[in-house]
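Need a sequence for this fold. Nothing fancy.
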């Protein structure tokens, strides 16, 4: 009887050890499998958010601040009103792109480069219907921006708006392309098409500055925003593919 009890105990111990070994072995095999193929059943991420430092280091030297002086008549007296806007260098010999509404009616226009140098604008050519203008300053060997292709933009792509916001110097805001091919009626009764909508902040003074992508290519010209109570993040840029033929014509 004692022998039978001892035998049953030994058999039980044997099975406990065997089961423990099997469980241990399965865990080990499972661990090797996960290590050898770490992507199995693990959600993949797209990595960290991009850095805009290198983009802005390339773009900012070719973005300019525009200061305008306009004569305003008030109660029979003439006053000088100052305005601020932005532009970007299209040609190394002093051709600058901006919006027509930035310089319209101005009696004098001054350009301030990123390095602090200032130049008076010596000639202005505009297309009011397209809200585009080309300014000429007497300078050479200036940094220029690369021109992209707005016709291939997709909603969700990164966008960076660069310009002289509030006349406080060149700064940048980021967002995405919110919509493409937007049509808008302007306050002058004109219809503008081919606009890019972005949630990158566009403030007074940003008009005429570039909207660029992550490679620093110009994809649009910042032009307008909706300023109404309850409306946020709705800025608009003229698509560069729409604007380029007009810019080239004005540059001639």
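Here you go.
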């Amino acid at each position: 009887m004692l022998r039978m009890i001892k035998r049953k105990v030994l058999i039980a111990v044997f099975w406990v050890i065997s089961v423990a070994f099997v469980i241990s072995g399965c865990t080990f095999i499972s661990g090797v499998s996960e290590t050898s193929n770490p992507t199995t059943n693990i959600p993949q991420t797209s990595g960290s958010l991009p850095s805009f430092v290198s983009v802005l280091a390339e773009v900012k030297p070719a973005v300019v601040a525009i200061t305008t002086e306009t004569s305003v008549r008030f109660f029979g007296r003439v006053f000088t009103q100052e305005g601020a806007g932005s532009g970007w260098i299209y040609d190394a010999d002093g051709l600058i792109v901006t919006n027509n509404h930035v310089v319209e009616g101005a009696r004098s226009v001054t350009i301030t480069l990123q390095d602090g140098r200032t130049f008076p604008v010596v000639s202005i050519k505009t297309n009011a219907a397209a809200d585009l203008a080309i300014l000429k300053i007497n300078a050479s060997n200036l940094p220029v921006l690369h021109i992209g292709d707005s016709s291939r933009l997709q909603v969700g792509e990164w966008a960076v708006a660069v310009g002289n916001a509030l006349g406080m110097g060149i700064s940048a805001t980021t967002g995405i392309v919110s919509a493409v091919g937007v049509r808008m009626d302007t306050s002058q009764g004109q219809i503008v098409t081919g606009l890019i909508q972005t949630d990158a902040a566009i403030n007074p003074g940003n008009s005429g500055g570039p909207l660029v992508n992550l490679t620093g290519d110009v994809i649009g010209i910042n032009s307008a925003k909706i300023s109404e109570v309850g409306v946020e993040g709705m800025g608009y840029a003229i698509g560069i593919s729409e604007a380029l033929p007009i810019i080239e014509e004005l540059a001639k």
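For context: Confidence is low (pLDDT under 50) at residues 1-45.
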